[in-house]
Write a sequence for this structure.
């Protein structure tokens, strides 16, 4: 089974990495304190180094912290094709080379990998009975860019089954893997507030500001 949070492009969706002092926020509580507004939803959003800096491309509020990595490499991030989740006027998942070619308008962007679904097809390296199973999380976006589907598995799952959910059940033409093992979700409506690992990039939806008195 899976936990699913659906976000609209009309909501205040942002990426969070550092506080005002430059230190990594690393937790959902720290993000709320930094933003000064309650989170409606949040999850880890992209792979990171031991010091919790992003492995790949990272843009926050229009400022690029890390460039795009387009070469292959070790681990899941380097299992090409990988991709970029872009938050702008629309919510989009791009395969990395397509992202570089299109240079979309992203107020926030985070790169991760591998892609789960590319133009309606599963990543070519996934096999139906893969034995590597973890708690996994990722994001897929609707064809028109108005909705993002954030998913975390409730049990350990392989890449093929996880990607098939996005392709066949959620009908997302493109979907991106965020991580496994360290995957965490904050979703008050699901009575969910995971803890444990200190995180790197976090994606979250902020509640509307309180009306002025």
């Amino acid at each position: 089974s899976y936990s699913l949070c659906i976000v609209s492009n009309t909501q205040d969706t942002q990426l969070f990495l550092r506080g005002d002092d430059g230190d990594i926020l690393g937790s959902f509580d720290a993000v709320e304190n930094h933003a000064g507004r309650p989170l409606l939803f949040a999850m880890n959003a992209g792979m990171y180094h031991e010091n919790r800096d992003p492995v790949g491309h990272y843009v926050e509020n229009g400022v690029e912290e890390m460039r795009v990595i387009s070469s292959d490499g070790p681990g899941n991030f380097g299992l090409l094709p990988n991709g970029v989740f872009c938050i702008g006027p629309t919510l989009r998942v791009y395969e990395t080379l397509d992202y570089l070619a299109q240079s979309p308008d992203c107020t926030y962007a985070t790169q991760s990998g591998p892609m789960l679904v590319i133009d309606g097809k599963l990543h070519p390296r996934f096999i139906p009975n893969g034995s590597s199973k973890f708690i996994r999380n990722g994001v897929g976006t609707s064809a028109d860019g108005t909705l993002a589907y954030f998913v975390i598995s409730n049990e350990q799952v392989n890449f093929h089954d996880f990607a098939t959910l996005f392709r066949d059940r959620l009908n997302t033409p493109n979907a991106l893997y965020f991580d496994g093992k360290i995957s965490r979700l904050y979703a008050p409506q699901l009575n969910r507030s995971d803890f444990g690992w200190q995180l790197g990039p976090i994606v979250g939806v902020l509640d509307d500001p309180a009306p002025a008195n």
